[in-house]
Amino acid sequence: MPHIEVSLSKRRLYLYEGNTLIKSYLIGIGKILTRTPVGNYVIINKVTYPYSRPGGQLTAYGTLWMGLSRRGYGIHGTNRPSSIGKMVSKGCIRMYNKDVEDLGKRVGIGTSVIIRN
């Protein structure tokens, strides 16, 4: 079963199958006042959003939300791609929409997520 490791200092999300690195993604993380929480979690839900919302706007969560077992936190896309690689979120892990969609196809509910500094 795949698992996810997040390096906050490198601003990278790594997808592993066993000990083999499958893919690495650039991410946005929490601001200083709303840091992304370090710890061990699991993906508890997945919600997809259409590309176009009423008025042609993308949701703040981009095209996919994957909720973590820590309430209120998740891995998601964004309607602000320029925020990727920066400390900008309220603690969630932001990804480019194409990347979160790719990750979402590779992982399911119950996937382990380890967040480290």
Q: Would you tell me the structural class of the helices and strands?
A: mainly beta
Count of folded domains: 1
Per CATH, the architecture is: Beta Barrel
Per DSSP E runs of 2 or more residues, the count of β-strands stands at 10
Q: Beta-strand percentage? A: 35-45%
CATH-level-4 superfamily name: L,D-transpeptidase catalytic domain-like
- CATH topology value: L,D-transpeptidase catalytic domain-like
Average per-residue pLDDT, rounded, comes to: 94
Q: List segments where confidence is low: pLDDT < 50 over at least 5 consecutive residues.
A: none
Helical run tally:
1
- The residue fraction in helices comes out at under 10%
CATH level-1 class:
Mainly Beta
* Gyration radius, rounded: 13 Å
Tell me, briefly, the overall form: globular
* Major sheet attributes: 8 strands, mixed
Distance between the termini: 24 Å
Order of helices and strands: EEEEEEEEEHE
Spatial sequence of strands, sheet with the most strands: 3-2-1-10-5-6-7-9
GO biological process, one term: peptidoglycan-protein cross-linking
Organism: Shimazuella alba
Domain L,D-TPase catalytic: 2-116
Family: Belongs to the YkuD family.
Overview of the structural elements:
The protein is mainly beta and 117 residues long. 9% of the residues lie in helices and 42% in strands. The chain has a single domain (2-116), classed as Beta Barrel (L,D-transpeptidase catalytic domain-like), CATH 2.40.440. It has one helix and ten strands. An eight-stranded mixed β-sheet has the order 3-2-1-10-5-6-7-9, covered by helices on one side. Strands 4-8 form a two-stranded parallel ribbon. The longest helix has 10 residues, at 97-106. It is globular, with a radius of gyration of 13 Å. The model has no long low-confidence stretch (mean pLDDT 94).
